[in-house]
Amino acid sequence: MAAVVMDGKALAAKLKGQVRLQAERMARKPGLAVVLVGDDPAALAYESGKRRDCQECGIYYDTFRLPEAASQTELLEVIETFNSREDIDGILLLLPLPRHLDERRALLAIRPDKDVDCVSPVNLGELLLDGRDTFQPCTPAGVMRLLEEYGVDPAGKECVVVGRSHVVGKPQALLLLRKNGTVTICHSKTADLAGQCRRADILVSAAGRPGLITAGMVKEGAVVIDVSMNRDAQGRLCGDVDCAAAAEKASFITPVPGGTGPVTRAVLMENVLSAALAHGKK
Questions:
Q1: I want to staple 190 with a disulfide (CB 3.0 to 4.6 A). Which of 8, 22, 183, 186 is the partner?
Q2: What are the tens digits of pLDDT across the range 214-243?
Q3: Tens digit of each residue's pLDDT (9 = 90 or more) over 4-16
């Protein structure tokens, strides 16, 4: 029996609709600022998408674009300006930065209560310690929303996460662990990746390698979540998973595109709203 395709677009529309309803009732709108360095086409497209999301959700939007050669001091000054503005509740620094800039220093400069993508060491540390939980990283939190939407409870299940980045892999493992999943993190040095994946009741792939997860690596009845967004040899968008083949074995599976991506964007909007409420906006 073919897997149920998890519709990220439908879930995202529902979440964004909820944000918009609450934002419309507020006397002071939630506000998001995006900081962009350089003119990378992918980054510009990503920034444009954030602008549309804010418009759909009734969130005030501002952006500041620095030239590719901008200095660390210039970048920090922009971040500090947004830190001090009361109309801005969330700050999103688009990564990666040009090589001459210190990414960690820039992320640490963002006020933790405005770090709506939960990428600063402060908020990631809180996530690890089960501490203050104003925000969760948008992509891992989006995965958890999809699991919840489709009635998949990680408790007691074998959960395998392929990828160990601080943006997706590691926080994804922590969120699954919070829901009482038994979690294994795999990566490029894992000796028997296929064997590890075949143990998974819930398999989350965030490796960024097209075709990495084949049907032979999927357990019968597993839930397969493909976080990656890649390009195949023909330039088409794809994930890590051979979706068509894996869907014949899985119980639930996410498509690429249309799976985790839209939910990630919706969770960011939720985080901006949460930040605004924490800042006393009503």
A1: 186
A2: 999 999 999 999 999 888 888 888 999 999
A3: 999 999 999 999 9
Inter-residue contact 252 to 232 (CB < 8 Å): no
Strand residue runs (E) in the chain: 4-5, 31-37, 60-66, 90-93, 158-162, 182-186, 202-205, 223-226, 230-231, 237-238, 252-253
Q: Tokens 């074998």 map to which residue?
A: 158
Residue environment code for 172-196, b if the CB has 16+ CB neighbours within 10 A, otherwise e? bbbbbeebebbbbbbeeebeebeeb
Report how far residue 201's alpha carbon sits from residue 82's, in angstroms, rounded to the nearest whole number: 43
* pTM beyond 0.85, yes or no: yes
Strand order in the sheet with 90-93: 60-66, 31-37, 90-93
**Max Cα–Cα distance, the chain, nearest Å:** 57
Q: Which residues of 45-63 are buried (b: 16+ CB within 10 A; e: fewer)?
A: eebeebeebbebbbbbbbe
